[in-house]
Amino acid sequence: KAGVTQTPRYLIKTRGQQVTLSCSPISGHRSVSWYQQTPGQGLQFLFEYFSETQRNKGNFPGRFSGRQFSNSRSEMNVSTLELGDSALYLCASSLGPGETEAFFGQGTRLTVV
Amino acid sequence: AQRVTQPEKLLSVFKGAPVELKCNYSYSGSPELFWYVQYSRQRLQLLLRHISRESIKGFTADLNKGETSFHLKKPFAQEEDSAMYYCALRGASGGSYIPTFGRGTSLIVHP
């Protein structure tokens, strides 16, 4: 079956702009989590959605938001981009919230200039 | 606050040698601990979790609550084990139940 798909793979944005990233989970998976990976901070949890509801949230400012649709696809949005938002954004899907058997996408590489 | 520490950024061994990737954690409760692996040009994937007490690809990890450690071990390293390894903890934080990852250890197995 198809794995977790993230689009776009690469993105370049200017400071102050906003960006929306998309994640399509594995068929049948209803939970989607988002992560930010940077050389300085490593892999950090952003939030987790299940059944269109945010179930868990990491320690990121309100500029980072997400949503999940009825087909379990998820988007994350970052508003007022800062240079420090440049990172690899990963999404992972699992059957349910808190499931440890999470499958990761290949990520979206965001560069803010 | 929960924290995961992987003290070694890089671990270099020869094929057939034993491997131990260290992971220490800080958490005031009963943690869920995992190891993830990322091979070159592949996606991050779950390797094993402490609750299942399984051995995957010859790797094992034992939770030592006294030493707050969850080291990953393999008796005989193979070249295909070369990868980035991340230790992770899932626990309660600020009203959420979230995963926290270590910075990762790059394992290189020489022929």
What are the main properties of this structure?
heterodimer, A: 113 residues, mainly beta, seven-stranded mixed beta sheet, four-stranded antiparallel beta sheet, globular, B: 111 residues, six-stranded mixed beta sheet, three-stranded antiparallel beta sheet, 11 strands, 0% helix
Verbal overview:
- The complex is a heterodimer of chains A (113) and B (111).
- In chain A, 0% of the residues lie in helices and 53% in strands.
- Chain A has strands spanning 5-7, 10-13, 19-24, 31-38, 42-50, 53-57, 64-68, 74-78, 87-94, 103-104, 108-112.
- Chain B is built from no helices and 11 strands.
- In chain B, strands 2, 5, 6, 9, 10 and 11 form a 6-stranded mixed beta sheet that branches. A 3-stranded antiparallel beta sheet of chain B has the order 3-8-7, with no helix packed on it. Chain B has a two-stranded antiparallel sheet with strand order 1-4.
- In chain B, strand 9 (83-93) and strand 10 form a beta hairpin.
- The model of chain B has no long low-confidence stretch (mean pLDDT 92).
- Classes of the chains: A mainly beta (113), B mainly beta (111).
Write down the Rg of chain A: 13 Å
Strand content of chain A: over 45%
- Percent helix of chain B, as a range, is under 10%
Shape of chain B: globular
Specify the biggest β-sheet of chain A: 7 strands, mixed
Number of strands of chain A: 11
**Main beta-sheet annotation of chain B:** 6 strands, mixed
Please report the total strand number of chain B as a whole number. Answer: 11
Task: Report mean pLDDT of chain B, rounded to a whole number.
Answer: 92
Work out the strand percent of chain B. Answer: over 45%
Q: Briefly note the structural class of the backbone of chain A.
A: mainly beta
